[in-house]
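Write out this protein's structure.
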Amino acid sequence: MNCPDCKVPMEIISHNYVGEAIEPFYKCPKCRLEAEGETNE
């Protein structure tokens, strides 16, 4: 399955960037990092 935004493979994210449990959702690692503001290459 691919991210609907960027079409790259997604993984199941079950925790947010500070480790708090959240509802699992599909988002590719790249988009997840961008969403968290961690765009450092």
